[in-house]
Amino acid sequence: MIVCSCQNISDRDINAAIDWMRTADPQTIITPGKIYHALGKKADCGGCMPLFLSTMRGNDNLEVPMHLRGLRQRRGPTQGERHEGRREGHRLSQQGTSL
After folding, report:
1. In order along the chain (99 residues), what is the average pLDDT of each group of 10 residues?
2. What are phi and psi of 39, to 5 degrees?
3. What is the DSSP string of the chain?
């Protein structure tokens, strides 16, 4: 089945690229960009991305290696931390001053 009509990439191409990358380096993190690169192509319009990702997720070799899972901890700003280093109310509209 054709997944990306702009670059003529099929589901077989995607699966073959994933299998090849996993065999070549069992520790690699496989991304859509790496698949395009392995196929010698570039993303074009992006309209295929939902189907492209769905096809990737269907491949058993896509899994992230166990020792790399959970490295990124998601947490929001705690009390005392500032978002992007800015204090709260840094915008004029939030400071309550009139011009």
Report:
1. 93 96 90 95 90 93 78 61 59 60
2. -85, 0
3. -EEETTTTEEHHHHHHHHHHHHHH-TTPPP-HHHHHHHTT----S-TTHHHHHHHHHT-GGGPPPGGGTT-SPP-PPPTT--GGGPPTT-SHHHHT---
In DSSP terms, 4 is beta-bridged to 9
- What is the rounded distance in angstroms from the CA atom of residue 65 to the CA atom of residue 68? 6
27, 68 Cβ separation under 8 angstroms: yes
pTM, two decimals, is 0.66
Q: How far apart are CA 90 and CA 86, in angstroms?
A: 7
Crossing angle for the helix pair 49-57 and 11-24, to the nearest 10 degrees: 50
Q: Is the dihedral of CA 44, 49, 54, 59 positive or negative?
A: positive
For position 26, what pLDDT does the model report? Answer: 87
